UniProtKB/TrEMBL annotation:
InterPro entries tied to this protein: DNA/RNA_pol_sf (IPR043502), Rev_trsase/Diguanyl_cyclase (IPR043128), Viral_Replic_Matur_Polypro (IPR051320)
Name of the protein: Retrovirus-related Pol polyprotein from transposon 17.6
Source taxonomy: Eukaryota, Metazoa, Ecdysozoa, Nematoda, Enoplea
Source organism, top-level taxon: Eukaryota
GN (gene name): pol
Length: 77
């Protein structure tokens, strides 16, 4: 196992990891990634709808009733 010193961040209160923010309060969403979901252009074909659903479903644990919210988009596929 090799570590790169420039990639090691020790003694931090919060850490960004795979689109999430880990802190002493638990796991939350990375605002930068949420902005990407909010600013996603309107899909115009089934493959773009699928791409958006894939991105949005990564954060499904933070979205109450995600399956009900995303059902209309899934119906388009």
């Amino acid at each position: 196992l090799k570590l790169k010193p420039q990639k090691c961040h020790l003694m931090r209160k919060t850490v960004r990891f795979l689109g999430h923010v880990l802190s002493e309060n638990g796991i939350s969403t990375d605002e930068e990634k949420i902005r990407a979901v909010k600013e996603w252009p309107t899909p115009c074909c089934p493959s773009e709808v699928r791409q958006f659903l894939g991105l949005a479903s990564y954060y499904r644990r933070f979205i109450k009733n995600f399956s009900m919210v995303s059902a209309p988009l899934n119906a388009l596929l």
